[in-house]
Design goal:
By secondary structure, this protein is α+β, with helices and mostly antiparallel strands. It has two domains: about 70 residues; about 140 residues, Alpha-Beta Plaits (2-Layer Sandwich), CATH 3.30.70. It is built from six helices and six strands; from the N terminus they run H-H-E-H-H-E-E-H-E-E-E-H. It has a four-stranded antiparallel beta sheet with strand order 2-3-1-6, with helices on both faces. A two-stranded antiparallel sheet has the order 4-5. Helix 3 crosses helix 4. The chain starts with 14 loop residues before the first helix and ends in a 12-residue tail after the last helix. Keywords: Coiled coil.
């Protein structure tokens, strides 16, 4: 059987042509390798960039967490400085800060004014002397809850002394504020603390002063305090059932 050699369809190349072809192949191979290196470098660069971005986000989250913790701690410390530990109401400093801010809003026309209500418990020392400090503390907390139930979110109430409380009715017309004060004095003088079977009546007197633009906090407090002690002298520690018409 006769064998035939395959016949190439490609034209034969001269030596110079083969040299040119080899050079072209080498160049193309080098270019391909360079593109591969560039692509690999781009991927490595992107991977490094993504890693840096992720690390930056982690650091940012950690920083935000630390800031949140610090803000919570600051708020806690501020609360301790401005809150009464026994009742949870504002203490003297906290209340005066709130009152000064309210007076500033009134001066700038952001509040219509309101009513300052001072509350002083009558013959309260008798509860401490007869039934002890725990009974007295329970009575103070009962009064505090009564004040809170008669205040709105915008109002401020505090304990500014041993048995002295205060309520600031803000952005309220005088007549409406007096109605609320009248309800408060009735509730306070109908309170009783039941302590180990004994019913301990709670009595209180109020000092009132309305305020508006142009008033000074210390003047308002002074006038309310004067009204309060006039009330205490007139009711002789029995606790008034209504607000004196002298206001």
């Amino acid at each position: 059987m006769q064998e035939f050699e395959p016949v190439s369809t490609l034209p034969s190349l001269t030596r110079p042509e083969r040299s040119v072809l080899r050079a072209s192949v080498r160049k193309e191979r080098a270019e391909n390798e360079e593109r591969d290196l560039e692509r690999d470098g781009w991927f490595r660069t992107m991977s490094a960039s993504l890693a840096l971005i992720k690390q930056a986000h982690l650091r940012l989250d950690a920083a935000e967490s630390r800031i949140a913790d610090q803000e919570a701690r600051i708020a806690e410390l501020e609360s301790q400085v401005t809150s009464d530990e026994l009742t949870g109401l504002l203490n003297r400093r906290g209340f005066f800060n709130a009152f000064v801010k309210e007076m500033d809003r009134t001066q700038r026309g952001h509040s219509h004014g309101g009513l300052l209500v001072l509350v002083d418990l009558d013959n309260f020392k008798m509860i401490y002397d007869t039934y002890g400090h725990q009974a007295g503390d329970a009575a103070l907390r009962l009064v505090a809850r009564t004040l809170e139930s008669n205040s709105r979110a915008m109002d401020s109430c505090g304990r500014i002394g041993g048995d002295e409380f205060v309520l600031l009715l803000v952005n309220t017309e005088r007549d409406k504020a007096l109605v609320r004060a009248q309800n408060l004095i009735k509730q306070l003088n109908n309170l009783s603390l039941v302590w180990y079977g004994a019913e301990l009546p709670i009595r209180a007197s109020l000092g009132l002063k309305d305020y508006g633009a142009g008033d000074k906090p210390e003047d308002i407090f002074g006038q309310a305090d004067g009204f309060l002690y006039a009330q205490k002298r007139s009711n002789k520690g029995l606790g008034p059932r209504s607000i004196s018409s002298a206001f």
